[in-house]
């Protein structure tokens, strides 16, 4: 299928290899013709309950039979109210309001607007800046793309980007002491604090290589945000809904974001949906000023919301915190054993079922792309990453992955590494 008429997002054609034509997806497997592939990245980190979940399919069908679409400008429908309410309860009632979007990028877009609007409402017109980490990923709309630190070298031809972003180094515990990272955070606030309206962060940075913000760093960050009146915006688009073993990573960190961006696992990834949960202070500002200038025709689409309600019902019904932590611990044990066997693995970072495997790849993205292609040939879908700190692969399997399937994934990884070592 060389002459297909779609343009690949993100990667130049020469880099992405053969596109698989998926003909069936079921549980933890996707099929391309007669080839069976273990989906080690659950779609694109979003198919948290596995492909083809029948309960979710039925919920969508029932909603379609009732109300398939509403004009979100002048109408609402029960399922939309229900999901808004469910999300707030699922987040343990820490938030006051929900706004729906179609994607994660759009959720980040909205969060940036909310932060700026909030500061403007407080007459703090100088506080327009948004702080972000230099290897963060937040999406590809203009706001979220500007907020994304990791791909900035490719932005030239698309410029000018959105103004008012300040980038700071990530506190990567294995590369730098947390104390040094806190000092650079303090310097950053001395320089930008008065101008900052919001601090946008991934609590566990995904494409940076699965890097968790250290506790002491987060504690100091919280103090500085309070001191400088900066809103804390958590992007939990990839970490939310038990991916890291907790409902949301912010809960593990003893934090209370003012704004929370969600998408991906929100509805098991079957239909496009994002959401922004809004804390009391920002919600009060919206109430006082009556509206937020953000809208898209498909926001809060009832079918997408029905899939979301059913996904959360399933997450609430079963003990996914325990399930994800137990399977993550098993994965960790297996990969750490492999790490001892082969010198090719530099470091393994695992939080729940969010797995980062740093490889000896000399910061060369083309090598990782080749490695991921080899994994695919062996039957495993993995995600390549590369940034100035770290190069390697990520695995984010569906939570229904079995221990046997984990064994198979690690065996494929081992075989591919052994081949790689033999041929290099
Ligand atoms: C942390 C994070 N933020 C934002 C996004 C963008 O979400 P979407 O691809 O749905 O626009 C992603 C997607 O990978 C993500 O991982």
Automatic annotation (TrEMBL):
<keyword id="KW-0032">Aminotransferase</keyword>
<dbReference type="InterPro" id="IPR015424">
    <property type="entry name" value="PyrdxlP-dep_Trfase"/>
</dbReference>
<keyword id="KW-0808">Transferase</keyword>
<dbReference type="InterPro" id="IPR049704">
    <property type="entry name" value="Aminotrans_3_PPA_site"/>
</dbReference>
<dbReference type="Pfam" id="PF00202">
    <property type="entry name" value="Aminotran_3"/>
</dbReference>
<dbReference type="GO" id="GO:0008483">
    <property type="term" value="F:transaminase activity"/>
</dbReference>
<keyword id="KW-0663">Pyridoxal phosphate</keyword>
<protein>
    <submittedName>
        <fullName>Aspartate aminotransferase family protein</fullName>
    </submittedName>
</protein>
<dbReference type="InterPro" id="IPR005814">
    <property type="entry name" value="Aminotrans_3"/>
</dbReference>
<comment type="similarity">
    <text>Belongs to the class-III pyridoxal-phosphate-dependent aminotransferase family.</text>
</comment>
<dbReference type="InterPro" id="IPR015421">
    <property type="entry name" value="PyrdxlP-dep_Trfase_major"/>
</dbReference>
<dbReference type="InterPro" id="IPR015422">
    <property type="entry name" value="PyrdxlP-dep_Trfase_small"/>
</dbReference>
